[in-house]
Design goal:
CATH superfamily of the largest domain: Class I glutamine amidotransferase (GATase) domain
Number of helices: 11
Distance between the termini: 28 Å
Number of strands: 24
CATH architecture of the largest domain: 3-Layer(aba) Sandwich
Strand order of the largest sheet: 8-7-9-10-24-23-20-17
Helix content: 25-40%
Shape: globular
Length: about 500
Amino acid sequence: MKKSTAITQLIIITAIVAVVLLISTKFFFRLDFTEGKRYTLSQATEDVLNEVEDVVTVKAYFTKDLPPQLVNIRQEFENLLAEYENISNGNLVFEIINPNESDELEQQAQQNGISPFQVSIQEKDQARQQRAYLGLLIEMGDKSEAIPMLRPDGGMEYALTTAIKKIAVEDKPKVALINGHGEPSLNGVVQLAQQLAILYDVEPYTITDTADIPTYYRSIIMLEPKDTIPANDLVKIDQYLGQGGNLLLAYNQLAPNLQQGMLAIGNDIGLKAWLSEKGINLQDNYVIDAQCMPITVQRRQGPFVVNQQIQLPYLPLIGTFEDHPIVKGLESVVLPFASSISYAQKDSATQYLPLAFTSEMSGTQSAPTYVDIEKEWAESDFTAPNQLVAIAAEGSLGGSSLSKMVFISNGSFVTNGEGEQQQGVNEDNVNFASNAVDWLSDDTGLIDLRTKGVTNRPLEQLDDASRNMYKWGNFLLPIFLVLIIGLIRRQQNARKKQKWIQGNI
């Protein structure tokens, strides 16, 4: 190649690279091959950005020097911000700030609600501790919302979009949490209350004889009632439904007592007959499922007492869902001591939508029954697969107007407890209830975002023979492949050597 030709080609290639780099600074795109399109902005995000009437400013307080596992999170979110800016038509701008550059920037980050955390930095074979920041401040006009720290397990788009939605909404729709029948308070369902508070004003409400349930409530929520519900309260709920109101009801008439080993049926508080009038029948049984949550029990081994985890089928791990917005994207919901549900068509104007089922390896046990912690469960115990445990209904549930209802056959699945007895609940349990409220209260479009990304993928239940086959297969197959490739290469080299000796190459 002539020198002049080589120089010309080098100039052309350099010019092409420069043009591509220039274009890339103006346009941002990336290809998304993930199963759930985790890195593709949803329609809900685009709708929120299009509805914003003022410019949203995002200040990303990101420490520059982070450990490798956190660098990926920072880079992923920087790419996400670029996509937001790209589709917002000027409604969103962002800036990246490194608070570690000065004490003033660190103070500014903390004043804006960004929480520092400690990371270990490796330098010249030595580790040092450093304060790091990975949070956001979203501002619009005189309103602001902070995300103190990005979660490493995903949910970035949901966190950012809901923060924007929260400061953009002028008047939040109202939702009522019914109390007065032994239901938990707002503090007793703190995870659910915090999540709903992003888009709704959630208010405790007690039904009275003198006033109707206000129709400005988009939906009402009744969780785990324990006391008898007066007939007048049920009439008030019917009147609310008859005026187009919507209801989320989580209840089962069971009374489990693991300390005494007894699983009984509780007192009838009036809801079972009321549900039957709506075409929904709650069975007097306990659902059991081989796909379940373990519990920790104490067992004696010689002179020692040790904690051991055992599977308890009365704590089914629900992972079979219908194609419905309420359950879309959910991975697993824990419904301890649930009952099975059946339904019968009430009238032609009512539609029933099954939502969640137990697994293929499930069944039921009639109550009352005893719990045997030492029991070795067999396949023959699970002879009634796919028990229905959650259902939605839509139609004339309380009168002539169309209304919606979601019924879940467990009352405590989102209950944290009161005071010092509070415990965290499974994240998908909270997502399930929140999605139901969204569907009942005129879908906000954020259901898909709330459950975007994988949270849990339980392994399929395998017998011992299959488990051993997969284990030894994973161990031996790579060795056999290496040996086969080695033999093939050896034969190829032998043929080349023979040809070389014969003077053919």
